[in-house]
Specification:
Elements (H helix, E strand, L loop, with lengths): L6 H5 L5 H15 L1 H24 L2 H16 L1 H16 L3 H31 L1 H16 L6 H8 L3 H25 L3 H9 L4 H34 L8 H11 L2 H27 L2 H12 L1
Helix pairs in contact: 3-6, 3-9, 4-5, 4-13, 5-13, 6-7, 6-9, 6-11, 6-12, 7-9, 8-9, 9-11, 10-11, 11-13, 12-13
């Protein structure tokens, strides 16, 4: 059906944005194919051994390690809850997929943080870079998650690698933003005191700003991991494996039971990772000092 154009539409110029993007992607795929192959090889070399390790050890050992971390970081109640929840996952037929998802989340999160934290430090120290980075981060955070899969498929095909790389890009913005926020929130009087003793800028950053900003940075780590977990599940649509495949197949076949089991496994894994990373941030001396200062005030 043809839609009649209004007189105003006839005067508006067409902006072939999609054509420009396709041309840029086609050029990049041809000119940078060696770079993309190297990236794919590195990601695959990180994911596959970790996946094999997590699936190679007994489920009981993984549960005990995570429950032990929970006991150390949060206490026996959380440790018991983690053991019960992970035991439930092990009792379902999707333990292998859960460990594959965990491997993908860990690799994507570590790579995202290796990029996000230095970028966050740079934009915190440079006002102009911060102004330029803000709209880019806004775009990255408001872009629908499924859109990240399109260039990932085009450059890397189907499988685990495009899923991990799409997850990496999708989960980066909170790491950058909260690193910048943590550094900007450091008391200026403390920074000036460090500078007054003749400390160079790099030492002020490493010895003063970063330790005080660590609690906020750890919040960013927590958010990166949570976003990575949500995106890895969506990446099941491109054959990334893990619980994403389980949920995608259940959706396609209308299997309510298996879909619910896969969803429960994702929820349990998310809760365990969320609480562990959140508690790890509170273990830093700077976090305890700030908490005591708030209590005293």
């Amino acid at each position: 059906m043809t839609v009649a154009q209004s007189p105003l539409d006839a005067w508006l110029p067409r902006v072939p944005l999609g054509t420009w993007v396709e041309s840029a992607v086609d050029w990049a795929k041809g000119a940078l194919s060696a770079v993309f192959d190297a990236i794919a090889a590195v990601v695959d070399a990180l994911v596959q051994p970790l996946d094999g390790l997590l699936n190679g050890v007994p489920a009981v050992a993984v549960i005990l390690v995570l429950a032990g971390l929970g006991w150390w970081l949060r206490g026996w109640k959380f440790s018991l809850g983690s053991a019960v929840g992970l035991g439930l996952v092990a009792g379902m037929p999707y333990w292998e997929e859960t460990m594959s998802t965990l491997a993908q989340v860990l690799v994507a999160s570590v790579l995202a943080l290796l990029l996000a934290i230095p970028v966050g430090i740079f934009v915190a120290e440079n006002r102009r870079a911060s102004a330029l980075a803000r709209p880019v981060l806004d775009l990255m955070q408001t872009m629908p998650a499924f859109v990240y899969l399109i260039p990932a498929i085009f450059f890397f095909g189907i499988g685990t690698v495009p899923g991990v790389l799409a997850t990496l890009v999708f989960s980066m913005p909170p790491g950058v933003r909260l690193t910048e926020l943590g550094l900007r929130q450091v008391d200026k009087e403390i920074v000036q005191a460090a500078e007054s003793f003749g400390a160079p800028p790099w030492m002020v950053l490493l010895r003063t700003k970063l330790p005080l900003a660590l609690p906020t940075i750890m919040t960013g780590v927590n958010q990166v991991i949570m976003l990575a977990l949500s995106m890895v599940v969506i990446a099941g649509m491109v054959g990334a494996g893990g619980l994403g495949d389980v949920i995608t197949f259940a959706l396609a076949q209308g299997e309510v039971g298996s879909g619910f089991e896969g969803g429960i496994a994702v929820v349990i894994l998310a809760v365990v990772l969320d609480r562990l990373t959140d508690s790890a941030g509170e273990r830093f001396p700077s976090a305890r000092a700030q908490r005591l200062a708030r209590q005293a005030a």
